């Protein structure tokens, strides 16, 4: 029986071709095809968080989409959105990130839900990422978790038209209101 080979960050960085891939627990995994709903949610969150991005210390954030974060030699996912407090990261970084993010947001893609709701959830919790959000554009749902005594606890949930028609303040971004209608593509 042949031992399974675990790919490393070096394998990921030299992966041939133009396909979108990431390193998940030693396996090179193809990223899902981008959909409009996914891009809309990313754009809405970035746009609404822009005042925090423009703010210098204290209270400022680096928030970027599709960012690769190296957690260890065999795990380097590309997060849909990730953010770092400028107090922890005062200078603009470059390249693959090696500093643990303060916040990660994954936007669910059909067929890849398990990766975001189980694999990333457990990995980020173990790594100590302080805040983890999961957004489901199809379900009009957002669940926000905060790390508490080594485990994630739910700090915010909204699902469906009745609960997602408000402006809310969600940790760690209590300084701004997030319009859930805009997040889910309702521009009227």
CATH topology: tt1808, chain A
| Helical/strand content category | alpha+beta
Chain-averaged pLDDT: 90
**Biggest sheet: strand arrangement:** 3-4-5-6-7-8
Radius of gyration: 17 Å
Number of domains: 1
Strand content: 25-35%
CATH architecture: Alpha-Beta Complex
Main sheet specs: 6 strands, mixed
List low-pLDDT spans.
none
Total strands: the figure is: 10
What's the SSE pattern? HEEHEEEHEEEHEEH
CATH class group: Alpha Beta
Question: What share of the residues lie within helices?
Answer: 25-40%
Overall morphology: globular
**What is the CA–CA distance across the termini?**
60 Å
Assigned CATH superfamily: tt1808, chain A
Count helical runs.
5
Q: How does this model look, in words?
A:
This protein is an alpha+beta fold and 188 residues long. The protein has one domain: tt1808, chain A (Alpha-Beta Complex), CATH 3.90.1570. It is built from 5 helices and 10 strands. The strands form 3 sheets. It has a 6-stranded mixed sheet, sandwiched between helices.
List the helices and strands and how they pair.
Layout: H1 9-13, E1 21-24, E2 27-30, H2 36-54, E3 61-68, E4 78-85, E5 103-107, H3 113-127, E6 131-136, E7 141-148, E8 151-159, H4 160-163, E9 167-168, E10 178-179, H5 180-183
In a few lines, what is going on in this structure?
The protein is an alpha+beta fold. It has helices spanning 9-13, 36-54, 113-127, 160-163, 180-183, and strands at 21-24, 27-30, 61-68, 78-85, 103-107, 131-136, 141-148, 151-159, 167-168, 178-179.
């Amino acid at each position: 029986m042949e031992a399974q080979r675990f790919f490393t960050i070096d394998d990921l960085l030299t992966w041939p071709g133009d396909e979108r891939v990431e390193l998940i627990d030693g396996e090179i995994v193809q990223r899902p095809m981008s959909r409009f709903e996914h891009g809309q949610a990313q754009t809405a969150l970035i746009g609404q968080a822009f005042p925090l991005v423009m703010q210098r210390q204290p209270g400022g954030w680096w928030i970027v989409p599709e960012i690769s974060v190296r957690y260890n030699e065999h795990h380097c996912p590309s997060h849909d959105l990730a953010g770092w407090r400028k107090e922890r990261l005062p200078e603009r970084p470059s390249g693959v990130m090696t500093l643990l993010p303060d916040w990660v947001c994954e936007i669910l893609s059909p067929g890849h839900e398990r990766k975001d709701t189980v694999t990333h959830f457990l990995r980020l919790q173990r790594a100590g990422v302080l805040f983890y959000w999961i957004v489901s554009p199809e379900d009009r749902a957002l669940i926000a978790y905060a790390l508490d005594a080594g485990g994630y606890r739910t700090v915010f949930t909204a699902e469906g038209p009745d609960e997602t028609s408000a402006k809310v303040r969600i940790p760690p971004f209590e300084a701004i209101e997030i319009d859930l209608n805009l997040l889910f593509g309702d521009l009227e």
